[in-house]
Structure formats: C-alpha cells, structure tokens
Amino acid sequence: MQTVRQTVPDSNVPALCQRCPARHQGICGVLDGAQLAQLLKLSRRVRRPAGEELMADAMPISTYANVRRGVVKLSKILEDGRQQVVGLQFAPDLLGRPFATESRVSAAAASDVDLCLIPKNVLETAMAQSARLERRIMLQALRELDEAREWMVTLGRKTAVEKVASFLYLIATHEDANEERADFDLPLSRADIADFLGLTIETVSRQLSRLKADGVIGIASHRRITVPDLARLRLRCG
C-alpha cells in the first residue's frame, strides 16, 4: 500500500532534503522548510549493508530511522533460535515504535539501506509541536496494523502458491511504481521468504518455479524477478 501524499510547499527546504527520494512521502512530507532544516541539523544519514542488524529485540530505543532506500526486515527470535519474519519496511517508512522505551522486534537490513537517524527525543518533541506530523505517524501505524491483519489471512488461509504470489505482489507494489508490470530484486533469501510465509525453502522454490512455468513471473537470476502483468499476479494471490 502506498503512502498518501500530503505535502507542504517546498519553500526554504534544505537542498539535501530536496534530493531525498522520501522527501514528499512519510514523515517529511508534512514538514515545512524550517522544520526540515531543524530536523536535518539534529539527524544523521547512514548507509547499512544487507544483513547488518539495525535494532535488537528488547534494545532500548534512542533513535528512530526514516527509511530512504532499501528494505528492512523485522523479526522475532525465539529462545531456541528459531526466527519468524513478521514484517518488511520500505521507503519512506519510520523504523521504531514512537513512545516505546524498548524495541519489540529485531530489525536488519534485508538489502543495502539508506537511513536518516533521528534522536528519539527530537522526533517526539516535533510530534508534540506538529499535529500534522503526529497524524502522519499515526496513519503509518494504522496502515501497518491493516497490513498485519491482511498478512494473518495470508498465513492462515492461503495456499502455498497464493502465499508466494502475495509476497511477490507485496514487493512489486513497493519497489516499482509502474502499475502494469514490475522488475525487481528479491530483498530476502529463500530461507527468509520461507520464514515470512511459514513454508519450507523447498516449497518456496517449487512455487516460484510453478509461477514461472505458468508465465506469471520471470526469473532472470537467483533473485531477479520480472512480472509482465501485475494484474495477473494479483489474481494468483487468492
């Protein structure tokens, strides 16, 4: 699901923010030039490689992160080491739960990611001073709740091929702005996809091959996926 655009005029917006791909979406889309300049002064931009841990479960929260590029994987780790991928975040999502004292999930870079790190007290103060910002963050939280409920249906009721198709459709609609077709790299390994869908690695591979054989997708390499017709893929989502 795409974030609804609701932007303020670009007057006096810092040049660095004007070049940011997440400028007109996410939390930054409701801030004016002065607010962005203040936030930029107190924030820092970082790049993290795929696989690097960004946040550990139960870790005290000191910063939030605005995802500028890439995909972040959210997981819960059981005491015996088993992992369940519970969500994905894309640009321009906000990583971190506002007003929580500690993280409720582990977060890792599923692909190379660019992040804008914002100190916890800075963002929460800005929320208290801006009803537009507070509303935007609340809308994101509600969207993530809706997506989590939809995913419960996927995990609980859909067939294996419908689960894999739903996962591919999720990535395609976040990673590619074209409404008719998509061409993207899978941000997760086969093992992580299996964890996310509650399937085995072998089942994931079989269903990908089935969708390829049916002409719904193309597999250019181990991770490169093409979708010639997004509407047809959506039909396979059940």
UniProtKB/TrEMBL annotation:
Gene3D superfamilies according to UniProt: Jelly Rolls (2.60.120.10), Winged helix-like DNA-binding domain superfamily/Winged helix DNA-binding domain (1.10.10.10)
Record flagged with keyword Hydrolase: no
Residue intervals of the HTH crp-type domain: 158-231
Family matches, as CDD domains: CAP_ED, HTH_CRP
Xref: InterPro entries: cNMP-bd_dom, cNMP-bd_dom_sf, Env_Response_Regulators, HTH_CRP, RmlC-like_jellyroll, Tscrpt_reg_HTH_Crp-type_CS, WH-like_DNA-bd_sf, WH_DNA-bd_sf
Keyword Endoplasmic reticulum belongs to the record: no
Cross-referenced SUPFAM superfamilies: cAMP-binding domain-like, Winged helix' DNA-binding domain
Keywords (A to Z) from UniProt: DNA-binding, Transcription, Transcription regulation
Official protein name in the record: Crp/Fnr family transcriptional regulator
